[in-house]
Amino acid sequence: MLEKTYDPGAVEGRIYQAWVDAEAFKAGAGAKPGAEPFTIVIPPPNVTGSLHIGHALNNTIQDILVRYNRMRGKDVLWQPGTDHAGIATQMIVERQLMERQEPSRREMGREKVLERVWAWKAESGGTILNQLKRLGASADWSRERFTMDEGLSAAVRKVFIGLYEKGLIYRAKRLVNWHPGLETAISDLEVENIEVAGKMWHLSYPIENSGETIVVATTRPETMLGDVAVAVHPDDPRYQGVIGKYAILPLVGRRIPIIADEYADPEVGSGAVKITPAHDFNDFEVGQRHNLKPINIFTTAARVNSHAPRDYRGLDRFEARAKVLEDLEALGAVLWVEDKKIMVPHDEKTKQVIIEPFLTDQWFVNAEVLAKPALESVRAGRTKFVPQSWENTYFAWMENIKPWCISRQLWWGHQIPAWYGPRLNSDPDFGKPDAGPKIFVAVNEEQAKKDAIAYYGRQVEFQTGGLTSLSFQKAMADFESTQRDRLVPAVWASRRASDPFAELSDSKVPLHRDEDVLDTWFSSALWPFSTLGWPEDTPEVRKYYPTDVLVTGFDIIFFWVARMMMMGLEFMGKEPFHTVYVHALVRDEQGAKMSKTKGNVIDPLSLVDGYGADATRFTLAAMAAQGRDMRLAMSRVEGYRNFVTKLWNAARFLEMNGCVRRAGFEPHRVNLAVNRWIVGATARAVDAVARHIDDYKFNEAANAAYDFVWGTYCDWYVELAKPILTGELPAEKQETQATAAFVLDQILKLLHPFMPFVTEELWGETGKEGPPREKLLILTEWPDLHGFADAHADAEMTWLIEVVSGIRSVRTEMNVPAGAKIPLVIVGAGEETGIRVESQLQALIRLARLEDVSYGSDVPSGSAQIVLGEATLALPLAGVIDLEAERARLRKDIAREDSEIDKVDRKLGNEQFVAKAPPEVIEEQRERRAEAVARRERLLAALARLS
RNA sequence: GGGUGUAUAGCUCAGCGGGAGAGCACUACCUUGACAUGGUAGGGGUCACAGGUUCAAUCCCUGUUACACCCA
Question: Start and end of every Methionyl/Valyl/Leucyl/Isoleucyl-tRNA synthetase anticodon-binding domain (predicted)?
C-alpha cells in the first residue's frame, strides 16, 4: 500500500542508486540494435563551482532530452565533465594561501602552487557534479572528463600546434586587456565596460618655440606621462598652423609631435587629443599609423615604472593621477575640469578591478579566419539556433571578431607548448628589433629539443629561471652578440683574440619554455571532440561526433559556442552540433538577475530539499518558454509539488481498487466508451508531449502532460471509473481496472523525462503486482499508441462532461446543497442522447449527484433548465430554487448567445468578408451562428416556462 | 550612440490573423473512502499607447512610451 503522500527525500537517493547500479546512464544503455546516436555534451561547469539555478535549468533540459531519446531507443551519450576555470580557481587557491598566512604564490613557486591547486580540485571538484546528481541528471558519469585530463591536454597541444603551423596562432606585441591585480592578460570578453561618474580634464601643453599652447582633454591624466604625440583632425581649421610642430610634454619635458589624424574629433573637447599608444586602444592605432614608439609607463601591477620621471615611479595608477594633477595644477596647466560619465573597463567577474590596456607579448588566435566557415555553417542552416533570433547575436559578433588573446599569465592551465631561444645570424629576422625570440612550438620538450638542435646545429640547454630572468636574458644576449660578431670576419677575429671564451658562448643555446598558460575557453572549445578521445581515433569519436544538441545560456554564445564552432569545423571538418538550444536566464520574482551580492539567489538544492527534485525540474521545464527570461515564482514550484502528489494519489487510488496491469492487455480492444476514450486521449497526450519536446518547447510539453494527467485522467477518467470499479459488472470492472493501470503506465513514461524519480518509484511500486517489470522505467520504451483514436467514444464522453459540468454549474448557482441528490428529467432527447444517457447513467448519477434520471415530454414546472444540443435537461427544484434567480441566469445565458449571434452577423453581413474570407472560415461562422440561434431558442423557451 | 527583446487577469506566464488561456491568488460551497499538497462552481482582461495593412488584428507593419539585456 502506497503511503498517503510521496516523500521525495526518502526516495530520490535510492532511485538514483538503482539507476547507477543498472548502468542506465552508460552510453548506449537501452539502445535498440543499430540505433542512431544521440549525443549531448554538458556545458562543463567550473570544477570548483557549485550549482546555481541556471545550471539546474540547463541540466534539467539536457536530462529531459537525454531521457526522452534514451526511451525512444537511441544510442544516447550524455557526456559530463568540468573545466579547470584557470583564473577563478587559481584565485581561490591564492586567497587560501593568504588567509592561512602561507607564502605567496611567487614565493612558493609554480610546482608547489600547482600541487595545491590539484589538491583543492580533488577536495572540491566533485561538488557540482554531485549536485547535478541530486537533480536526477542521467549523464554517463563513467565518462566524466576534466579539461586538464591528459587526453584533453593532448588535444589542446595538438590544436595549438596545428593552428600555429597554419599561421592561425601567433605571438605578437599588442595592447591587451590587462588585469593588474592578477597580473595577467584577459580576453576582451572578460571585460565589462561600466559607466561611472568621471571627469574630463583639459590640459594645456606648450608648443615648442612659440609661447602658444595646445589644449588636450583626457579622462586619464596620469597617462600623459606616456604621451608621444598630440593629434588634431587634418581638416580642423583651428590647428592648421600647428601640425608638424612639437609640443613639450609638461612634467616630463619630452618633445612630442603634433600630428594630423582623423581620430581626433573636432567636436569633442578642444578637438586636440593626447596620444598614449601604450595605454589606449585607439591611441595605439594612431601610433601605428604615424610610426610612433609607444612608451609604457606602468609595471604589470599598474604602478608607474622607470620610463616616467623619478618623482612618479612606484606610485600606483590612482596615486599617480593625483600627483600628476597636483603638479600640473601647480604649473597652471589644468585649464578646467568637467564632470563626465565615462565607460570604464572592469574585470567582468568581480567588477571590482579596473582593467588596464597594456602592451605585452601575447599569443593570439586569428579568429577572423576561423570564423568564416563557422558563420557559413549557421547561415546555411547546418547548425541552427533555437530560438532562431540568437543567430543574429552570433552573426553580429562573428562578423566583427577580433584576434583572440589566448595566453594568460597564470600557472593553472595548459602551459603553452612554445620554447624561446636566440636567433641565428642566418635567420632572416636576425637583428630585427621587433622580431622577438626564435620560437619552437612542439608537442613536448623532447620534440622542442630536436627542433632546436636542427635549427641551431648545436646542443641546447633548457633554462627554468624565468623568461624575464637576468640569467636567461643574458644568455640570449650573449648568443646573439656572438652571432652578430661572426657575421663580420674581422670583428670575429678580434673578438676571439680578446675573449678566450668566444667560441664557447655560442656552443650551447639557451632555451626556455613559455611560462604562460592558455585561456580556459581554448580547451573548452575542443570539448565536443576532446571528451570523446580525440586526437586518438576512438570509436566514440566516430560514433558520437558530431553531437546533436548543445543546451546553453545566451551568455556564453561568444565565449563558448562560437569557439566550439570554429574549432570543430577546423579540426573535425564538421559542425559540433546541429542545434544550439539557448535557454532563458532565470531571474527572481521581481525580474532581477540573481546575484550573490543582491542576496536574491534561489538555491536549486534548497528547492530540491523543500519540494523534491521532480517538482523543481517540472517547474523549470514548464517555465522554459523560448525567447523569454524566466521569473521563478515559488508558487509555481509549490503547484508542481502538488502535481507530484496528485499523480502519487492517483496511483494510490488504482492500487486500492485493484487496478493491476494485465498481461496481454490490448488497449485498442476495450469496449466501454470511457475506456476507449481515455486510451485515445492518452495517445493524443503522448503525441503532443513528444512533438513539443522535438520542437524544444519544453513548457508546452510539460503543460500538455500536466493537463492530461490532472485535467483529464484524474479529474474525469478516474471519477468516471469509480462507479464501474465499485459496481457489480465483472467484465466492465476488469476492463476498467486494466485500462486504468495501462494508462497510468503510459503516464509514468510520459512524465519520466520531466519527473524521473516519482515516476520510477511508482513504476517499481505498480510493478509489484501483475506481470513483472522487465526493466527500470528509465530504460523502458517510449509509448507507441498510434491508431487508438475513437471519435464516437470521444463525442460521447465530451457530451457527458458537458452534461455533468452543466448540472454542477446550475446546482451551485441555485444553491443546491452539495450533498443533496436531485432528480433529472430529460426533455426532447433524440435517439443518440438516449443511448448516451443509458450508457453513462451510473457516471451521470454519481458525478452530477442525481437522485434519478427520467424522460419527460414536458419540463416540470419550477425546474432549472439546461439546454444541451437538442435536449433540455430539467432539474425539478420546485420550492428549492429561487425562480427569479433562475430567470436571471437564463437571461444572462440568452444575452451571451445574443452577443455571439450579433458578432457573427456583423461578419456575415459584411460583403467583403463573404467575398474574400476562405470558405471554411465562412462555414465555421455559419455553424457558430446556427448553434447559437438554436441554443437561444431553447433558452427562450425555458425562460417562457418560468413566466 | 548601435542592436535585440519584452509589455496579455492582482501575481508568474502561455498563446495567436477568424471564438481571450493556464497556474497561483481571490470568492462561495464541499472533510463525498485516492488526494484539503484535495474537489466543485465562480468573479476578474480596451491583450501598453497611436497609426497602418487586411474582409478580419491581441497577433503582421510603422511610430511612441516603459522596462530588460547585448555591443561600442
Answer: 675-825
